[in-house]
Amino acid sequence: MSPGLGLLLPSPDSPQSEASSCAGQRRSGIPENQPLISRQRRNRGRCGCSEKLLQSEKKKLSELQGIRRELRAMKEQQGQHHQEVMAYRRAKLELLQQQASKPSLTMFLPTDNPQM
């Protein structure tokens, strides 16, 4: 064995070797033709690494659900903001139409004060 190959192999106490030993434990008593989900359910209590994976997956799921809630709230706020902007634009357009419909001629009314 060359000196470089020893670096690629996991040490006996590394997490990778622990995971591979867990994988070996799982395969020993479970037929390969069973669905993956039922195999996973059976193996939850057999190995400590599967518990760690389960906890990390639960944490990821809860974080993703939190992100999903935040995105929904932001989308709702964006929809409300859009409705407010559209109402403002309609009111502004209506005001401009009212101003355009008024006569633009300036009329001079006679005053009581004759300066001529």
Notes on the structure:
It is built from 4 helices and no strands. The chain is an all-alpha fold and 116 residues long. The protein has one domain. The radius of gyration is 37 Å and the shape is rod-shaped. The model is unreliable at 17-21 (pLDDT under 50).
Question: Main attributes?
Answer:
116 residues, mainly alpha
Poorly predicted runs: 17-21
Could you say which overall geometry the principal axes of the C-alpha atoms support? rod-shaped
What is the residue-mean pLDDT, rounded to a whole number? Answer: 75
Biggest sheet layout = none
Beta-strand content: under 5%
**Rg, nearest Å:** 37 Å
User: What is the helical fraction, as a range of percent?
Assistant: 55-70%
The total domain count is 1
Distance between the termini: 120 Å
Order of helices and strands: HHHH
Can you give me a brief rundown of this structure?
This protein is mainly alpha-helical and 116 residues long. It has helices at residues 5-8, 15-29, 36-43, 48-101.
Question: What is the topological layout?
Answer:
Elements: H1 5-8, H2 15-29, H3 36-43, H4 48-101
